[in-house]
Amino acid sequence: MNVINRFSGIIVVVFLLAVSAISLAGQFSVTRVTDGDTVKIAGNDEKMAIRLFGIDAPETSKKKNEPGQPFSRKSTKYLASLVLNKSVEVKSYGTDRYGRILGVVFVGGKNVNLKMVKAGLAEVYRGRPAAGLDLEPYWKAETEAKKAKIGMW
User: Fold this and answer.
1) What DSSP character marks residue 55?
2) What is the pLDDT of residue 9?
3) Is 59 an annotated catalytic residue?
4) Mean pLDDT calculated for residue range 108-117
5) Annotated catalytic, 6?
6) Is the pLDDT of residue 7 over 50?
C-alpha cells in the first residue's frame, strides 16, 4: 500500500510539472512581430519564437521589396499593435518542425489569436487541430468576419 501511495504522489508531481510547463506566464515580452502569425518573445534570459496556433495569416514575402500575399502587411501591423513590447502569456501546444512554440497568446487576458481572426486578418488553421484547443470560437469569428466583409474577406 505504501508503494502505491508513493507512486500516486509521484504521478501528481509529474502532472503538475507538465501542466506548468505548457503555460508561459507574463514575464515574457514580445520583442518582434515576424508576420501575422509569428512573434518572438524574451524574458527570464530566454528568447523564443511563437507560432500563433489555430490561425493562419497571409504570408509575407521572404524577398526584399516584394509584397507577399494580399493583407500580409496589414496583418503583421495589426498583430504588432496588439502585442509588440507588451507583456504576454502563452498557452503552449508543443512545437512545430521549425522549433517554434505553437501557442495561444494572451495580452491582459485577451486571446490575441482570436482577435486576429475577428479582424479578418487571419483565418482558422485548416491543418490538424491540437488536442485541447477549442476551435469553435475561431470558426464563429471567421464566419462573422466573412459576413461583415472585414479585412481580407
Assistant:
1) E
2) 45
3) yes
4) 97
5) no
6) no
